[in-house]
Write a structure and sequence with these properties.
Layout (H helix, E strand, L loop, with lengths): L10 H14 L10 H16 L4 H8 L5 H29 L4 E6 L34 E6 L1
Antiparallel strand pairs: 1-2
Length: 147
C-alpha cells in the first residue's frame, strides 16, 4: 500500500487565486461576447468566489446578459475553469517551495460522465490543454497527488 501525504491547504488562498484569474481571463472560449459582456463575466465569476455565490445564484445574475440555457452553461463551465486555475496557481507556489504535485483528472464516475472525460478519470494530466473543463458543462476536477 502506498503511503499518503496530506498537505494542509488554506482554501481562501485558492479562492483568492481563482478571483485573480477570473478578473484577468479574457473568456476567449466564450463565443460571441463583446467587451461589455467580457467585463460582466470577469466581475461575476470573480464574485462567485468572493461571496461565494451558488451556481444557481450566478446563473441568475448571468441571465441578465445571456439566455437561461447559456447562463447555466457559462456558470458551470467558467466557475470550474476559474477553480482549476486558482488551484494551479497555488500549486505553482507550492512547487517553488519544493512540494512536487501531480495533477490527476477526476470525474464523478456516474452514468452521465461524457465520453471525453470518462477515459481520463484517475489519469495524470500531462499537458495544459488536458485540465478541466474539457468542454462546456464539464463536471470534472483535479486531484493533486504528491510525487
Amino acid at each position: 500500500m502506498l503511503a499518503q501525504t496530506s498537505i494542509g491547504v488554506e482554501w481562501g488562498q485558492i479562492n483568492e487565486q481563482a478571483v485573480e484569474w477570473a478578473r484577468n481571463y479574457t473568456y476567449d472560449l466564450v463565443t460571441g461576447i463583446n467587451g461589455t459582456n467580457r467585463s460582466t463575466l470577469q466581475r461575476l465569476i470573480a464574485r462567485a468566489f468572493e461571496e461565494p455565490l451558488t451556481q444557481g445564484e450566478l446563473r441568475e445574475l448571468l441571465s441578465g446578459t445571456y439566455s437561461p440555457v447559456r447562463a447555466e452553461m457559462i456558470a458551470r463551465t467558467e466557475v470550474t475553469r476559474a477553480a482549476v486555475e486558482g488551484e494551479r496557481a497555488f500549486v505553482r507556489e507550492l512547487e517553488r517551495q519544493g512540494v512536487q504535485l501531480t495533477p490527476v483528472h477526476a470525474t464523478r464516475e456516474d452514468d452521465i460522465v461524457c465520453p471525453i472525460c470518462g477515459p481520463r478519470n484517475e489519469q495524470p494530466i500531462e499537458r495544459d490543454d488536458q485540465f478541466p473543463p474539457l468542454h462546456p458543462r464539464c463536471r470534472c476536477w483535479v486531484n493533486w497527488e504528491t510525487r
